[in-house]
Every structure is written in structure tokens, then in C-alpha cells.
Automatic annotation (TrEMBL), chains A, B, C, D:
The keyword Lyase applies. This is L-threonine aldolase. Pfam families: Beta_elim_lyase (PF01212). Homotetramer. The lineage of its organism: Bacteria, Pseudomonadati, Pseudomonadota, Betaproteobacteria, Burkholderiales. SUPFAM superfamilies: PLP-dependent transferases (SSF53383). It comes from Ideonella livida. Its cofactor is pyridoxal 5'-phosphate.
């Protein structure tokens, strides 16, 4: 497997600093803000996973559970979408974009887009060479001006024509696209014969934060395809892809199969989704993660020497800290990335506790105080 | 998701025929012989999955559990192999072959090889165009004569040069390669500067049947890369790739990431493996599946009108049946494929019970008797 | 460059045997039947090439000459086709097929198709993994029965769905598809939502032999895309691609550019075409090549011990000869292939002379007589 | 073919302005500064092309002429390089880079590199997804600081590792890399296990300008692979690729074949090269083009309102002109690009005459004077 040195910020082997919380800290305690994927599986998903393990079921998505989940997603999104499940976010984004673009066409994205900065060229690989045309992000977001510039940058055959645009909701910088921003970008894209893709690895956090209907910030705002994140929500594995324009997903089953993204025992990928969608569990967990991020942001904002890079609108907090403070925090065992968003990034999840947030805030304060 | 009609043999929506077994039959009872992937997760794997859900863990395979499983696999195979986990068998085979071949080179395989007949062009996709050179299988196996012919078929630049050979162990026809057959094929391949890949989707069944050390039919016999099946063994998702020649796997972490095959919450893919490897659980389950297949084969062989196509050496039974009998069996609710191996294919798994085998055998007999 | 050993049949370094013809034989005399591409550039094409070298011209196909040639091709084919020029036949076939298929779809072809046997995996490469589904050829041709079998072979997502069929006219075995055969195959293909591609590397020979209008055996018979061979006709480099269904070629300019197939000084690729199309020069040369093949066939048919494998309908003659005779012919300096079409292949071109044909026939007779 | 609107700067259909030169201007007179590929074939190349048209020759590069040209190139470069010919520059760069990189690795280039800005994603296509990591150019050149930053930007598996660097000599901005600059960049690349690729579309202009041995600014300075431009030098079609590290080119013949880059009548691609290399013809023509560029630069520099963006070191002149002047020049019929290098680009070729340079300079002056 990838050797530890292969990670940008080596994660601490041992867990140093004493815990403030009563009782022993959970395993990997200090890793919890490194990403929302260091958390485990939420109880509801785990129970559904276990319950799915009864008897025999048709494979490759032909089981009843999978069909039920697809129908449920169509209800939640109020749309007769073509729904597919793939294994992870990189695959979801890349296969979906490949369904929108030919190899000689391009995808417009922000220069902070995960597809551009953290997928090791997967979009280029799955599409057979589609180029990503980057636009400087503003608060982590694409702007209509930037999108328009990228589209009109060139019009000759020596430069790939933009065929799709991808938005990340919530963004890699912890911000949110308002419904109007999405429809504004979609209008520009559609006017140029382009399709709109949304990287929704943290879509649940966006819905929970905006308090809108999922449809409002997707197809009603002009999104053609949504990659809906499951793992960061609390699932063990598996993302959903919703083609609101069914035509775009017509042959996607074959594409997913060829791309090594069709699970044989699909019920174990799909069933946990059902539990998340029941009674808004997915939004409750996402809302909790968002709340933890706000709690952390408030405490950090009050610390002299710390500066919030952006107002936290979802489950991530980006803070500008002196190098010395960063070093002390790491020495205290805390794991976090600094190469994303230009500061120290602290992510909250369904599993984050107020105590842990307060502990981290306390240690940040201590690290700053040590001057 | 793929619509039901998308499967070659439509699986029965409802489950007809009354069960012979006492008590209600488990869900999907009649689907159990359709494939070894209609079974669920074995108890040991499920327990390990749940136990892995404690606290927080480093993502992308940097967690301790994953490192432990990799070490354990190295022990089981008595080799310092580079170990990686991917999501399914198609991805395992295709990314591994892509690591052995350039797009302008070729892979030799039998004309019944899963990579050629059931992966929707995935090997060609992941390699960027490597051609599969097929050789007629004998009892589901490649022969040295066939391999040699394929290698020497052409030597000009208008035809791709063979760079790898792939063997399936156990084969798609339920047969096994003896150690000597593997080393014989490997000798031919290596003599031509080729690498040897093994599709081990059912490798456990082979080891259990041959009663040999895993090393004996892999690296000791000349296999360079093994794709070790987990799902058919009883896992929910996830296959292992072992590069016995570490050099071949040097950069594989990047390839897997780009190919959308790197799990963020890797512990849930890897931990269940540990339970399987503890105390030979994987081989006990595989041995049970093999035993069930033998039980079925014996009973079927005794039926007038039924003919075993090949001696069952692993967990699959291939029977030649009259069309009318096939129709009656399906009417009775049984699901099975007929386009693989030229007859009716019945697969057994860790979850198959003697009662179910007897029930199926009884129904086959009845279907035949009905003339 | 490819080392000589890299060719299947090593071509003789020196040119042995004395010439029967008066005067010194032209350079490479004994190579002339090895392929129709060992011939040079016909006088008309060479003159046009030189005449194109006046002053300055817009590059990348924006020059007037290129536009004129495209219009002329539209006239010759009586169709408002989208026309493009690429550098060679492998590129023409592969980029055209890639325009018809997605990576997870398949192309049906005969097992003797050049795209399958002599392009080193180019179709798989340019399409990103499309599989070629082969069908046994009958007299070098696809049959509707074979095409139907390939299409209906499988209908599940584990097997690529056939999206295109490719016919070679004239075939790799020197035979021809009659208009009715083409429309019959096209009807089957279109009925299954497939597109029809024609590999016309030797299309001119077919038209000259059938004496029909180019349209009769292309779009009027259901062909959607034709790759029209220029090199074998007598050009130095460059093939034309005609999309009779303009929609299929809508974005092809970008595909060709990305595929490294857009000539900057396009006028030198396109202008010679104009000379070929003037006054039917292309058909006159093709007719001559066909006549030479018939002359050779008649003489060979009369030789005891030689057997024509197929009736020569275009410019190739395929003869079954004893190994000893083949060896003697090679010793006499003659170069020819034996791994295509199962016998000795002798190709005629615009440059083949009756004397050379008679000389070869004489040497074949002598080789056979030597017993 | 690509419709005229498909070019960034529509080229004037008609040729306006009266010629200053005596006699009628050559065809396309006003297109001559648009690019060095609007010129035709130089006399020496045309003669060689015609002389190559004698008798029959082995195809696919097995002819004697091709082997002779390869040997001659080895002499000129004083290196036992593996030499191949492909059809155009996009193909040369892309196939060469694909030979250096796997799909999950990256290529470092300047943000003005032709491979990044003008090849429609060809490098990504041929490599199957390799990402181009751009670095801001300084005077059109990569700097060791920029290269180092790109290499060390990230070291985790979510970002492709840099495996090659590409330099353009002479650059897209008409500047030159000094020998020391190349060896400095190569030292950094090699220290990181990377290979050095040179895009030599205008390599001849660089050698002519620097007056050095071709080896001095290639393998002696650490270049591993050179794509040597033929078309801009005065050939009709065809570029050479020299692998100074033979190992890197070991299998390239197969790659070129699969990529649709192997000419059947290779002699017509290779023979003209021989004429260019005889007696330094290639450098004489390149030197003339450079001289014309200097002549133009001197005259333009003297014009009030015009500003040279960079000192012209090869055959291109980049001038900053007011929009109004640009419009007047175009109205006068002159074709030139403005989206390359941030100003008006005027390219000179082997065919550019002093009179034409003076005519253009005069019209630029007039356009500026008109205020």
C-alpha cells in the first residue's frame, strides 16, 4: 500500500498529547480533524450493512435493495434520475465527467477543484485525455466571469472546446454555492452547449447548511449530473451518481462495469444508503458536522494570532496560523493538512464531539500563546 | 442501475418452488447457485468489519489495520510482496495487467478467460489498448502449446508483442491448474521476456482443493502478480493484489489512485481480510464450497440425462442438460447461467448448505424425469 | 526505425535473379509484389504535389486547395459528406471507429480484418478500449449470419455492446463485397442501432472492378463512414475520411488534431488527391492494378501445383504453393507475404508492368517445376 | 475539414494591399508571417522527394533511404540515437512523452509550452492521462526554480509525480535556451529521476542562431529525447524523434505503429531529410529565417508606438501594437496571430524575402502612423 511518506503531511505514528476529555480517547483521536474520512461508519449505516446480510441476493445491482435505494434517491431529489453507485469519489467524478466529454473536449473547473488537485489525473485518465481548464477560485468558487473567460479563451481546433463545467458543493474551501450562483453558472454553461457536473463529496453538508431541498441546488438550478458523496457522510464505501438528464446516463452501466466500478455484492454498497436517507439521517449527521465546524470557528476566531481564511459555511475550518504554532500542534499529536486552501484545515464529521472541538481549540490557543 | 434485462439470463423476480428444507428458506434462496457472489458476507468478515469501526483511522491505507493485513498476507504467501487492495475483480485484473503491459503490447489468455469474456473491455481500457491474444482453452486451461503459438504467431510491428500471460486459478470452468502446469507456462512466458499474471478470483478454492501452500502455485511456480479474490471468499467488497516481483508494483499506489481504486476508509476494506486469514478461515470456507460442489456433482452424475462437462475440481459444477430440463428448472425458480462453459453452471459458496444442494439435485432430477 | 527482423517475412537485402525484361530492372524490382505500397507515387500525383508548392498557403487545411479537394470528393461520391484527411490507413480506421464507439462498446469485424490483425491494437488505443468482436470470414467477407451472431452473442453489461461494424472493400483476401452484400449487412447493423464503417484502403480497386458509382457501394448501400485509401492508389501519404452522416463527423476536426493527424502543410497531402480525381485517374490506375492481378492469376492457375485460394476480384492474388516452391521463389529474390490469407500473396499496383507479371509467373512455374 | 471559423484569428480570404515588390506577389503573399508553416517545401527537399520516386522500395521504414537518413542524423548529432519518423509535431511530442511517462505521472512544462496550449490535449491523450504541470515561463523559458517548485509541489499519491520535463527550443516566444540553461534544468530533472524531452519544432533555428553543435544543446546538455522539426524547416511533412537514451526508444516502433504514425511509403517522408542534412542545408535555411526576423525586428524597433516584447533570438518577432494598428494591418491583408505570446507574432521562414520583410515593416509603420 502507499507508504506513509507518500502522504503530503506525515501523520503522527503515535498519539502524543494527553486528552482533556474524561476517559480514554477513542483510537486515532488526534486524526479526527485531518479529514472527514478518518471517521468510521455511523451507527445507522453499520446496522443497515449488517441487516443486508441475509440470505442470497442477485448481484451487480440487480438486487431489490439496490432498486429500492435508487427509487428513494429519486424521491429525495424529486427527479426521475438515472442512479448508479460506484466505489469512491474519484471514480464518481471521473466516470461522470467522461460521460459528458470526449477526449478532445475540456472540463472547466476552479484551480482549487479536487478533480484538478487531488485525483492524480483521474479525470484525464477516464476520459482518455480531456483537459481541465482551470479558473482562479473566489472563496473556493467558480465565478461566471471566470467560467466565461475559460469558455471563450480560445475557439480554434488547437485548443479543446469546453464541454462541461464542474462545481464542488460544498467547496474544497468549506464555502457554499448559493442556489443563484449555481443557476447563474449553469445558464452560462448551457448557453454554450455545455453540461453541468457537481462534485458533491460534501453535498449533504451543503443541504444541511442551506436548509434547502436537494433539488433546489441541483437540477432546479441546472445541474445535469451530481456525484453524491456517501463516504464522508458516514458510509464505509460507495458514492451515488445521479444523472438528472437520463440521456447522459443511458449507457453508464457499461461504462461503470468497464471502469471496474460495478460491485458484485452491490447490496452492501447500496443498503447503507437507505438508512442514511430514512428520516433525514444523512442531513442530521451533516448538520452536526457543520455545527462542530462553527463551534471550532468561533473559538478559533477569538484567539489572538489565528485568522479564519474564510467564513465556515459547511464542515471545514481553514485557519491561518504561524509556522511555529503549526509545529507545536503537530507535536501535540494533531494531524491536519496545510497544503489545501493555503492554511491549516480542520474537518469535522458526524463523529466529531464538542469535547474534541474544545480540546483542539484549546491546543491551538496554547500553541499560539507559546508564541 | 443496470436494468434487469441487462443480465444475460434474466433472474426470476419471484421465488417459485416450495422449499424441501424445514423452515422458511432464506431470502433469495433460489439465486444461490447462480454465482458465488449471490452469497452474503461470512460471519467472521462481518464481525471484523464491525470491530474495525472504532474511533478514527488514517485514510487511504495509512491505517494500522491495513498495514497489518498486508504483513499477514506476506506471511501466508511466504513472500515479501507489494500488497494493494482494490474494489473488485475487474479492477484488480485490469490494473495489474496494465502494470505489466504498455498499450502496444498484448496479453495472452484462454478464450474462456473472464478478462476476455466478462469484463466489458476493462483490460483494454485500463491498459490504453493492449490486445488480448486468445488461445483455445483445454478443460478451461491454457496449454504451453497454445501459449507458445500465441507468442510466436507474429513477430512484426503490425501485431502487438505478447508481454504478459494471464491464468485463472481456479478456472472459469471449475478446473484447476496443477503446480507443474503453472510452472510450465511460466517457464515459456519468462523465456520470452513475459510476465505471469494470475486471476485468483477463486484462488482460495484452488488452495483448499490442492491442499498446497499458496506459495506453491504462485511465486514458487513463477507467478509474478496475483489478483486474490476476496468477495467470492465471503467478503463484502475488495480484492488484494500481490506483486511478488516488488519492482512491478513500485508505482502501483499511484496507478490505483488514478484508477479510482483507492478507498478513503480503507480499514473497512482491509480489516475483514484479517479475519479471513486468521486460523485458515478463508480455506475452511473455500473447502466447504468445494465440498458442496462435489456433493452436487456426485448426485447429478447419477442422473440419467445429465452429463458433467468437466470433473469439478473447485466450487463450480458444469452440467449438460436438455433445453426442456433447463426451462423446467428455471420455472421452478432456480437461477443459473448457461452461457458460461457451454452448459448449466451451478456455483457453490461458503453459504451453500447440503440441504440446498440436495434440493437442487432433486429438482434437476425431476426436470430430467419430466422428459 | 523498426529493424528489418521486425518484419514477418524478412525482405531480401540484395536483389538476386536476372531480369527477363530488357534493360536494367527498376530499383527494388523484386519487392513490387510484396505489397501495393512498395510502389512509388504515380506521375499525376507527383506533378500535383510539385504544383502545390507555389507561394504561401493557410495551414491546417484552411488552404483553398484542400477545400477544393473536399468539394471534388463530395461530387465524386454524390454526397454532402464531411471530409477529412489523415496521414495513414491505421489512423483513418482507428479515428473513424473511435468517432462511432465509446470505449465500452464494440466493433464487429471479420477475423481477417486489417484493423484486427495488422494495426497493433490501434483501434483499441484510439477508442480507449473498444473491443473488436471477430466473426469468421467467408471468402474474406463478413456474412449477415456472422454479424447477427456477434451482435446477439451477449446482451449483458459484462460484455461490450456492438456499436459499429467494419467492412473492408476490397477485402484483405482480394475479394469484393457486392452492393447487395453491403446493404444486407448495413440493414442488420442499422436495425441494431449500429453504424457502418468501411475500410477502403483499396476502395479504388473495388470501384474499378465493379464498375459502379462510388455512392452505390457506400452511402447508398448504408455505409456511414468511409476511409478512402490514397497511398495504395499512388499517393505518397494521406487517406481521406468521408462521413456521409455529417453528424458523426461534427467534431472530428478536434479528434484528428488531438490524435496527431492534422497536417500543418495540408496542401501537400490534399493536392495530389485532386490529380487522382481528375478524369478518373484514380480508377484508371486501380483498373490497371486489377488487370495485372488477373493476368497473373490466369497464368498461375495454369501451372500444375499452384492453386488459387480465391478468385482474384481486385489487385491481389493468393496462391497456395508448396513450401519448397516458396523457398525457391524467395531465393530468386521475390518478396511476398505468406501469413496473410493463408497462402502466398502477390499484390499488384499502378506501377506493375505486364513484363513483371510474366516474369513472376515464369519464376513461379520454374519454382514448381523444380519439384 | 476544420471550417475557417475554427481558427483563432480568421485568415483573410482575399489578399488586399498592393505589393511593394516588383512583379506579382506569390500566392498567399500576406499569409507568410502568420506561421513558418505557411511556406512551401524548399527546393532541396522537393528535389529529393522527386528523386525518391524511383522503382519500388520496402515499406514501413525498411527501405535503404530511411536507414541512410537515420545514420546521417546519428552523424549530425554525434550520437548512436534510436531514430524514428512520425508525421507531425503534435504526434512527435505526444508519443515521445508517452514513452517517458505512465498515465499516472506528470510532465513539467512552461505555461506557454505548445504541448500545453496548442495540441488540443494530445499529450494527455497519447499518455492515457498524464497531467501537465505548468510553470510560469520567463522569456518563454522554464527556470530551474520553477521546475524545482513543480517537482516538489506535492509528494503524495493524490498528485501525479513528475516524470519528465519538456523544453521547447527555440521557444514559443522566439527566445533560446543557452546550453548552460538546458544542462541546469536537466541536472535538476535527472536528480529527481526524471527524463528530459525537447520540443524541437524550431530546433534548426536554435542551432543556426547559437552556432553550436546540435549535440551541445541536446544530449551533451542532458536532453534524453529530441523531437526534431522537419516541416517548419522546409519539408512537406514529417518530424524526427531521436532517443539519445536508446533504452527509452526500445519499443517505440510498436508505439508509433499503434499510434497511426508509421508511414507505409516511408521513403517519401525520410528522403527529403537527407537533402536537408547535406552540406548544412537545414541550417542555411534556418539561418536565413533568423536573419529575416532580425531584419524585421530592427525595423519595427525603430517605429514609434511599436515595442518588441522580447529580443528575437530565432525566427519569430513578437511586437506589442495598439489594437487600432492591428486592425489596420489586418485590413491591409496581413495575417498573424495575437493570442500567442501576448502580442502580434510575425514568423519568418526559409521562404521569407527581404522585400516582404520591408513591406510588412512599412505597413506596420503606416498602421501606427495612422494613429
Amino acid at each position: 500500500m502507499p507508504r506513509r511518506p507518500a502522504t503530503a503531511d506525515p501523520l503522527p505514528a503515535a498519539l502524543a498529547a494527553p486528552a482533556l476529555v474524561s476517559g480514554a480517547p477513542p483510537a486515532g483521536y488526534h486524526l479526527q480533524f485531518a479529514s472527514d474520512n478518518t471517521a468510521g461508519v455511523c451507527p445507522e449505516a453499520l446496522a443497515a450493512f449488517a441487516q443486508a446480510n441475509t440470505g442470497f441476493a442477485a448481484s451487480y445491482g440487480n438486487d431489490d435493495a439496490t432498486h429500492t435505494v435508487c427509487d428513494r434517491l429519486r424521491e429525495v431529489f424529486e427527479a426521475d434520475a438515472e442512479v448508479f453507485f460506484v466505489f469512491n469519489g474519484t471514480a464518481a467524478n471521473s466516470t461522470a465527467l467522461a460521460a459528458l466529454c470526449q477526449s478532445y473536449q475540456a472540463v472547466v473547473c476552479s484551480d482549487t477543484a479536487h478533480v484538478h488537485t487531488d485525483e492524480c489525473g483521474a479525470p484525464e485518465f477516464f476520459s482518455g485525455g480531456s483537459k481541465l481548464l482551470t479558473v482562479p477560485a473566489r472563496q473556493g468558487k467558480l465565478t461566471t466571469a471566470g467560467l466565461t473567460e475559460a469558455i471563450e479563451r480560445r475557439s480554434d481546433i488547437h485548443y479543446p472546446r469546453a464541454r462541461a463545467v464542474t462545481l464542488t458543493q460544498s467547496t474544497e474551501q468549506g464555502t457554499l454555492y448559493q442556489r443563484g450562483e449555481i443557476s447563474g453558472l449553469a445558464r452560462v454553461a448551457h448557453a454554450h452547449g455545455m453540461k453541468v457536473h457537481m462534485d458533491g463529496a460534501r453535498f449533504a453538508n451543503a443541504v444541511a447548511s442551506l436548509g434547502c431541498a436537494p433539488a433546489d441546488i441541483t437540477w432546479r438550478a441546472g445541474v445535469d449530473v451530481l456525484c453524491l458523496g456517501g463516504t464522508k457522510m458516514g458510509l464505509p464505501v460507495g458514492e451515488a451518481i445521479l444523472f438528472f438528464d437520463r440521456q447522459l446516463g443511458a449507457d453508464f452501466a457499461y461504462r461503470a462495469k468497464q471502469a471496474g466500478q460495478l460491485a458484485s455484492k452491490m447490496r452492501f454498497v447500496s443498503s447503507p444508503w437507505l438508512a442514511m436517507l430514512e428520516g433525514g439521517t444523512w442531513l442530521r449527521h451533516a448538520g452536526h458536522a457543520n455545527a462542530m465546524a462553527h463551534r471550532l470557528a468561533e473559538k478559533v476566531a477569538a484567539l489572538p494570532g489565528a485568522e479564519l481564511l474564510l467564513p465556515p459555511e459547511a464542515n471545514g475550518v481553514f485557519v491561518s496560523l504561524p509556522e511555529a504554532a503549526i509545529a507545536r500542534l503537530r507535536a501535540a499529536g494533531w494531524a491536519f493538512y496545510t497544503f489545501i486552501g493555503g492554511g491549516a484545515r480542520f474537518m469535522c464529521s458526524w463523529a466529531t464531539t464538542p469535547e474534541a472541538v474544545d480540546h483542539l481549540a484549546h491546543d491551538i490557543g496554547a500553541a499560539l500563546a507559546a508564541g
